[in-house]
Amino acid sequence: MLQQFFYQEKGLFLQSLHSAVALCYIAVLLVLALAFSHPVYLAGIFIVTALAIWAADGIAVWEGYLKIALWMVFLVMVINPLVVRAGQTVLWHGPYLPVLGRLTITLEAICYGAAMGVRLLDMISIFCLYNLTVHPDRLLNLFSRFAYKSALVVSLATRLFPVMTASMSSIREMQQLRGVDFQAGTLKERAGKYASLFNILLVSSLEGSLQMAEAMQARAFGSGPRSCYRREFFRPRDGLCLAGSIFSLIVAIYGIIHGFGTYTYYPQLGYLFDGSATVTVLAAVLGGLSLPAGLSWGWQRCQYLRSKI
């Protein structure tokens, strides 16, 4: 079940992008989610990220992330009005508490908590998109050109949990085929069964590390200049997606400088749309960020477009 949260090669458009382009797209989404405070902009980034996840065939995986994220958003929306008393629109005066004082619920605190909840959804969804589209080995291969030893350590660390999860599942299935029932028996008996399971996992992990060390020694790791077995090519699709990301980032910087991407929550709520420029900047930013999802839709349905990009 945990395997769905890790990268799985499906031959999709977003997975075929150059690692640098995919990382740039994810980074722009993350930076804009942190830079914008306007609730409509945050909601727009959420929609764009959802479209990208849909293009990456990750809706089922995204649901698992949302089940955890929605509880966190609920806590943010509940705790923020209780601890923050700023705001002029008072909705409710509560009793006095020994440490917190008198409870005061304001409309501004509720709206700010809701906006921060949407930002949290944005960030969790962006990390979900990263797991769906960015191959960890190709990404670390990109950075290994500058620091190959550090990249190797990071690669081994990031692969540790997925590999151990797969090994645990295989060992458990083998034990069940031999007649071991992990649900039967008393608590002490079940603990003993799981203890033997972890012992086997530890032994197999040590054997795997020895095999990896032997493979690195056979390939003369660290004895000379690093060679590259597989090279990534920069194709027209990469140029289009990179241009869309850079365009959205430039427009977003312009909007933030001129105050289009910011919003006033305290002491009183501001206007959602302060002129047509706010909508224009929003449409430009979301248009550039939606380009990869749009190209993915066309790439799947148009053979001519697939051959050109």
UniProtKB/TrEMBL annotation:
Compartmental location: Membrane
Entry protein name: ABC-type cobalt transport system, permease component CbiQ and related transporters
TM regions (residue ranges): 12-34, 40-61, 68-87, 107-130, 239-257, 277-299
Gene name of the record: CbiQ
UniProt membrane topology term: Multi-pass membrane protein
Protein source organism: Pelotomaculum thermopropionicum (strain DSM 13744 / JCM 10971 / SI)
Top-rank lineage group of the source organism: Bacteria
GO CC, alphabetical: plasma membrane
Entry keywords, A to Z: Membrane, Transmembrane, Transmembrane helix
